[in-house]
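subagent[fold] <- orchestrator: predict structure for attached chain, return tokens only, no commentary.
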Amino acid sequence: MKPIVSADSSWIEAEPRQREVERPNGARWTGAPPPFDDWAKQIAESASASSTTRQSPLNSDLPRHTRDALDRLRGNEEAKRLLAAEKAINSPLPTATTLADLLAKPREKIHYRVDRLWSVNGRVLFAAQHKAGKTTTAINLAKALVDGGTFLGEFEVAPVRKVSVLDFEMDETDLAEEFAKIGVVNADRVDLYSLRGRANAFNILDDDVRSEWVELLRGSDIVILDCLAPAASALGIDENDNTAMGHYLVMFDQLLAEAGVDEAVVIHHTGHDGKHARGASRILGWGDQNWYLRLDDPNDPASDRFFKAYGRRRVDVPEHGLVLNAETNVLTFDLAVTVIAPGITNSDTTKVLSALANHPEGMAQNAIEAALGWGHGGGTGTRLATLENAELVTIEPGPRRSKIYRLTAAGKEQADDSAY
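subagent[fold] -> orchestrator:
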């Protein structure tokens, strides 16, 4: 019989040879190989018949390479079992406490590391938009933690002896420049680890590597991880994978526990809208308290910044402005800066109110778009509807079925305030 192709592939024949193939039950097929489903069925029937013996019926009936693969898998499973048992030795089971006994114990007053923002022994997830000032906020926090005083000029801080900052986004030169601007008095109390370009050195999933980091971080009171995405990505972890991210955060908690560190901040990115931490929901659930920092206009790094916090231990700080002094790197929480109308940027609100203030007779939508240089259909109608819901503008019928927009009394007051 002639092969279909050249001598290099002479094993491929135009028609299958007649040959014998052994069945799992000892019988033999004669002719072309049986369909895979038939083979699998025979294996399943043989396994079912032998299940009472608790021994695999397959080894003697499968090809050698398949038996070898099964042996390797069994070995891996046994190794995992032994490793879990080994780890369990160092993790004794907790003792039970009845609810009655727990309620009978005197409960301490809530203590805060940062007043109204961060409870003692708590974990903080700090999520911020791209270029909103994550690292600058972390630097302000580190200074407050070792020097004392206030954080963001508003929240009293209970200082600590040692803070370790793990930075995955800036090199040592840039970090030094940013810290120099703000002027940390007790600089010897801050340990900096610049991991940009070498994030895989923080492979806390590896027991040996994690043990090394335990020794490095031992003696720290607080660890600030800036930021989560590059640290996880370096280990091939998809931030949208709940299982993988959950395991990573559990290992981070284990690292902290082994190093004797009770408090930590993990910095992460939000989505483009700045409303939620990006990625798996497991990330959002990690912190005892959640902090958020966003830009008023995500496309303008110079626009207003807003900060808020919520979480356990009665943390609930409404969103207010965050003002940056570019020369000193100092951030200040400004209660006077608020969101004018939820759902629209302060910048756009100010532009619309200013335009209407200059036309007390009112303006149609196309006139507002022309005055502000906005293209027709670019979301102006949605902005105006939002301002109406906020009771800053009124809508009245105009000629030719148009709508005329005018300022309300509250809108005039806001326009006057924005002018100063």
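orchestrator: received. Logging for downstream: Residues 1-27, 50-54 have pLDDT under 50 and may be disordered. The CA atoms of residues 191 and 366 lie 57 Å apart.
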